Each structure stands twice: as C-alpha cells, then as structure tokens.
C-alpha cells in the first residue's frame, strides 16, 4: 500500500444520501477473481445509459468536475460488504472520500486500500458542496498526520477523526495483515486458553 | 460491573490490543463464499502462508450460482470460473467446501445455523454484510471485506475498534399476519438506514423472546440495513432446542455448553450507549416504497412527503415510479421473489405455502421460490410444499442467493415491480431498473395470488 500523508486537489460533488455499494459497483461486476478492472465500472448504472452511452447528467461525465476527492452525501457506502467498491473508487483515481457519515464496513475496506475517508459535520459538508457549486476549481487540502481538512478557497480548517491504528497504517503504507501475522505467539496462546465444547 | 451479552463475548475474544483503541479479536467461525474470497486466497498464495485454522473455516457456493439445473456445469462462463476458483482454493488450502449438489450446500447464512456451526457465544465473520444473521444465536457476527477475509484466513483474527452498544426492546404481542420481517422493517423505518451506524445491537423484550430461531434470524439479518455492525439476541431455551442434535452441535459436552451459554445473557443493569423501545402492537405488515430499506411504511399507509433530503427522496420516488401521499395497497405487481438469507428458511416457505395452498397466482405475475439451502429444499419437498407452490403456478427452484442480488440469471426486468422477501431495495439490486418492494413471505405470497399489493390481515382466515 502507498503511504498517504497529504493531498491538495479539486473535488467531485455527489450530493446524494445513502449511496450504497450496489451503486458504486453493481453485483454483476463481482464475478472477477482478481482486483483489476473495477475502475471502469465505478457507478456504472448512474454513469452510463442502458445502451452504453455516457449519461451526461452524471457528475463523473461532467468535464467541469475533476479531482482525487469525492464529496458525497450522508451515509456513504451503505449496504453490501463488497471491497470491490473501494477497489473501484481507487482504480478510478479517487484517494479521498468526504462525507458526513460512512457505513462501517465500507470505511474499513476503504482504509485497508489506502482510500482515506474524511468524516465532517453535516454543516461542513453542506459548506463544501456550496463552495464546489460556486467554483468547481476550488481546491481542498487533506493533511493526514495533522488530521486536518482545509477548504483552501475560504481558509476554513476542520479537524477529522480517524482510528489511530488505521492512521499509522496509512501514513506508513503498512498492511494490517503483516501486523496480525507478527502476533502469532499471542494468537497461539489465546487458542491454548480458549474453552470450546465438543 | 454489569456487562451486556455483547461485552461478554467481545471480552472473551480479545487476543491483545494495539494500545490505541483497536482490539485483535479472535474469530471462532469463518464462512467463505465464491464472490469475496478469490482475492483473499491470492493474498495468502502470494505470501506463501497457509489457512491458519481450516477446522474453523467453512466454504460454500451461493451468490453466483444458477437456481436450475445445478447438476449440470454452470453455463455462464464467469460464474462457472468463479465457482471453480473457490473449489480449487478450498482443495489447495484444505478448507471444507460444500459445492453445488452437496447436501450441506446453500446460502451461507442459512447453512451455518442449520448445521449447528453457529452457536452461542461465538465470534463469526464472512465476507458478506448479512453475517449479522448469526447473531440470532447470541453471537458477535459481522460482515467483513476481502482484505479482512485474508486476515482471518491467515491469522484467525481481525483488528477492530469496539463498537457502541444499542438495545432495541420490542414489548407486547404482535397481531396475526405480522411476521418477523414486518418487525424489523418497522424498526429500520423508525431508525433510518444509517440509524445504527457504529453500533452493535441487542434485540430484547417479550415480542423478541417469543420468536422462533428462524424468525430471530430474519430480525438479526437486517441489522446491517440500519447500519449496525451486527445484531444479537441472547440465547435461551428456544436457541438450545433448535441447536440440540444439529450435525456440528456439541454432544458429549452439551450440558456444560448450555451452562456456559446461559451466562451470556446481559446482566441486570448493564448499560447500553443507546436504547429504543417499541410496542409490537403498533406494528402492521410493512412494505417499502423507496430505494433503501429505511423507506418503509405500513401496507395501509401512504408514502411520506419527505425522507432525508428532497433531492434523494425525489430520486428514489422517480426510480420507483411513485409519488408522495400515494397508497400502494392494490398497486399492480409483476414479480414475487420468496428467497434470500432473510426469508428462505423452512418456516418462511411453510408460511407462504400455507397461504398459497389451493389458490393460483395471478396470471401476469412471475413468482419464484428459492429455498435457502439443500436441506431446506429437501425438507420442503418432503413436506409437500413444492407441490403446493407448483400447483399454484410458482417456480420452486434450487438453493442460492438468486434474485436477492441478481448476480445470476434470476433478475427482475427494468421497470417491473417485484414484491421480494429479500433485504435490499437498492436501485438495480434485482436487475438494472428493477423496482423492489420489500415485504414478508406472507405479504409476498398473498400479493402473488392477488396480482397486486395486499394487506394480509384482510385475506388470512
């Protein structure tokens, strides 16, 4: 995993609440057995008409909006546990998603793939959408070590929370699995003392 | 200090802590299926590491399988290859695999409980959000992503920060025609689709205790639909009666096991971070009108003017072809799907069949019954339910997730209305453009007969 420290980018607004992982990546694309090829299918059914033509009304098809930050409505990533949703967002080119709430499993999947979830208050989220609407070229800064999200247009700085262990993994580009593997002796000791019934 | 059931199970499974708010949690049972595991097995292969506890790992094929002709090779190439990859991985890594045609095969959240692999006090994970189902037995059970599937395969552990706790108490008694599905759809409608995010739920109260294990599984199954990490119900005599004699249930140490399980109940005075109380008498048969499971109303109700932001509400109603203040009673439907990890157990099929018996489906409706597992299917056939369904014009098919998520051929056409016993009414969930109305097995069966949405209370004897 690539280390994540900071980022300055424009943002893509998706002011829809409860965006579920079936929208992020529909189930029919989950038949692949590798981690490749999901970026093209990101938001597939919102992004393309049934005949395969791009839907001009969908934000990813609007050349005005570009950037490595996706700003989405409340409760982003609800529904299915499919990690393919995180893979699709990363492969498309997003490195950060900003919302006022993330579904738990999605958040975990995102962080495990170097995709930073920045949770802000509903008021800040509203402000971010307003700033992008006023000036689509507005830039935002994310400083992960400082846990700081800045609307550069206005200078407004907000603090965001992140699980400390996940933060360390992201900043160092470290994989959780390697940490768990290093606990082999503790796990064996647990297995020795656990009582089970046959 | 007085502890909740959740606290007791969690505390008993902490291997160690990171020191900054995360626990390394030991997992007692890991269920694996074809869709979310291939990339996880690849991770192990790349690192050259084995599955740590093959005896705690169980695999089946359910999400991406056809529900007819399971004795033949899967005709769709990608599905055939995905199932073959699971089979090969299980063989290489030594994991027990219940493939198509195996008598233990079925939807992962149906087979775990019916085999007795799911038992009180356990921690259970699967690369599937409806793993919360297993909480019905008094377990901490939750869905994980593929990175965590790899972690559990390799180390039998996950890294988690402890969720907050929530208790949802349902008092009183439910009316005739109100099923477990109606209770949980009512709760989700009240809390909203993100109303329990960050929490682990315990369901309690008279109306919950009165439920059978099948019904409890329906309740816990949909915990994720209000954002909860999981949901559980404390084990009791109903739980033990269900488990005793199951293939993997304890035999020699049965008494000791029950004694340990009894100690799992939340202590009197145990504190929950959030509490809700509902009265079962207030709950009517429920249906959904929108594109998330929180958008539910009593079957006799009207679509509200607002639910969340105006833009999101308008988008949902435009997709569904509905308008605010509309009643859905009598609304024509095209499909009925009775199946999924929410409602495809033997009791669900019995309830639907008891209503359907001697009647015929409306000619314009396509009605499908997909048993949750091979065991459920066999039992349904033995009890004559297949004959009942087929005589009424329903298709009675083979086990799998089917039209719940539309990965296989069992899809609902664009624009068509489907009354479904599944768990998600998301846009496109049952097929691109499909319009899903979530409901109980009884409401689904009665609507198939009528050809439109009905209030089961009006039609049951």
Largest sheet of chain A: 7 strands, mixed
Backbone structural class of chain A: alpha/beta
Which two chains have the most extensive interface, and how many residues on each? A-B, 56 and 77 residues
Mean pLDDT of chain A: 97
Q: How many strands, what sense, and barrel or not for the largest sheet of chain B?
A: 5 strands, parallel
- Tell me the overall shape of chain B: globular
Give the CA-CA distance, first to last residue of chain B. 50 Å
Percent strand of chain B equals 15-25%
In percent, how helical is the residue content of chain B? 25-40%
Low-confidence stretches of chain B: none
Number of helices of chain B: 16
- The average pLDDT of chain B is 97
Order of strands, widest sheet of chain A: 4-3-2-1-5-6-7
- Tally the beta strands of chain A: 7
Q: Total number of helical segments of chain A? A: 8
Question: What does it look like?
Answer:
- The complex is a heterodimer of chains A (198) and B (461).
- By secondary structure, chain A is of the alpha/beta class.
- Chain A is 32% helix and 17% strand.
- The mean pLDDT of chain A is 97.
- Chain B is α/β, with parallel strands linked by helices and 461 residues long.
- In chain B, the strands form five sheets. A five-stranded parallel sheet of chain B has the order 5-4-3-6-7. Chain B has a five-stranded parallel sheet with strand order 17-16-15-18-19, covered by helices on one side.
């Amino acid at each position: 995993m690539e280390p994540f420290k900071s980022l300055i980018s424009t943002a893509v607004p998706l002011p829809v609440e409860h965006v579920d992982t079936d929208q992020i990546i529909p189930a029919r694309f989950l038949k692949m057995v590798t981690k490749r090829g999901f970026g093209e299918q990101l938001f597939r059914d919102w992004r393309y008409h049934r005949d395969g033509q791009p839907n001009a009304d969908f934000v990813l098809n609007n050349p005005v909006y570009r950037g490595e930050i996706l700003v989405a409505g409340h409760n982003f990533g609800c529904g299915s546990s499919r990690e393919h949703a995180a893979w699709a967002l990363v492969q498309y080119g997003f490195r950060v998603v900003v919302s006022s709430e993330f579904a738990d499993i999605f958040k975990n999947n995102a962080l495990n793939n170097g995709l930073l979830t920045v949770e802000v208050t509903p008021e800040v989220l509203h402000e971010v959408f307003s700033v992008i609407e006023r000036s689509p070229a507005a830039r935002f800064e994310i400083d992960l070590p400082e846990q700081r999200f800045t609307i550069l247009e206005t200078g407004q700085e907000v603090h965001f929370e992140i699980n400390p262990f996940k933060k360390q993994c992201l900043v160092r580009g470290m994989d959780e699995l390697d940490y768990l593997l290093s606990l082999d002796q503790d796990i064996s000791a647990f297995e020795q003392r656990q009582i089970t019934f046959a | 200090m007085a502890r909740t059931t959740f606290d007791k199970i969690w505390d008993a499974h902490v291997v160690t802590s990171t020191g900054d708010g995360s626990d390394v949690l030991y997992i007692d049972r890991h269920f694996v299926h074809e869709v979310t595991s291939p990339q996880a097995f690849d991770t192990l292969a790349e690192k050259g590491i084995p599955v740590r506890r093959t005896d705690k790992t169980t695999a089946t094929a359910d999400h991406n399988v056809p529900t007819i002709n399971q004795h033949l090779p899967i005709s769709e190439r990608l599905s055939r290859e995905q199932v073959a990859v699971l089979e090969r991985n299980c063989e290489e890594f030594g994991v027990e695999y219940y493939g198509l045609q195996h008598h233990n095969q079925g939807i992962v959240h149906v087979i775990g409980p019916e085999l007795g692999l799911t038992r009180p006090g356990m921690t259970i994970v699967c690369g599937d959000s409806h793993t919360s189902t297993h909480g019905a037995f008094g377990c901490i059970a939750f869905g994980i992503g593929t990175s965590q599937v790899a972690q559990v395969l390799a180390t039998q552990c996950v890294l988690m920060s402890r969720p907050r706790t929530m208790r949802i108490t349902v008092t009183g008694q439910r009316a005739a025609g109100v099923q477990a599905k109606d209770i949980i759809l009512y709760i989700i409608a009240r809390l909203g689709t993100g109303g329990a995010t960050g929490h682990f739920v315990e369901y309690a109260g008279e109306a919950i205790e009165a439920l059978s294990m099948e019904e409890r599984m329906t309740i816990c199954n949909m915990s994720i639909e209000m954002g909860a990490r999981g949901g559980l119900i404390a084990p009791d005599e109903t739980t033990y009666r269900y488990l005793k004699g199951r293939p993997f249930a304890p035999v020699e140490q049965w008494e000791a096991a029950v004694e340990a399980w009894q100690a799992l109940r939340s202590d009197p005075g145990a504190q929950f971070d959030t509490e809700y109380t509902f009265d079962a008498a207030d709950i009517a048969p429920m249906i959904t009108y929108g594109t998330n499971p929180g958008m539910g109303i009593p079957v006799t109700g009207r679509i509200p003017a607002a639910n969340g932001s105006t833009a999101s509400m308008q988008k949902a109603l435009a997709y569904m072809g509905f308008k605010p203040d509309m009643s859905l009673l009598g609304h024509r439907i095209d499909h009925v799907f009775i199946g999924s990890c929410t409602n495809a157990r033997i009791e669900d099929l019995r309830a639907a069949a008891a209503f359907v018996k001697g009647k015929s489906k409306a000619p314009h409706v396509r009605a499908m019954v997909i048993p949750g597992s091979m065991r459920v299917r066999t039992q349904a056939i033995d009890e004559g339910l297949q004959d009942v369904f087929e005589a009424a014009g329903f298709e009675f098919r083979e086990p799998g997730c089917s039209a719940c998520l539309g990965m296989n051929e069992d899809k609902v056409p664009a624009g068509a209305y489907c009354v479904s016993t599944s768990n998600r009414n998301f846009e496109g969930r049952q097929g691109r453009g499909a319009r899903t109305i979530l409901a109980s097995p009884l409401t689904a069966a009665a609507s198939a007969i009528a050809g439109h949405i009905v209030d089961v209370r009006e039609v049951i004897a």
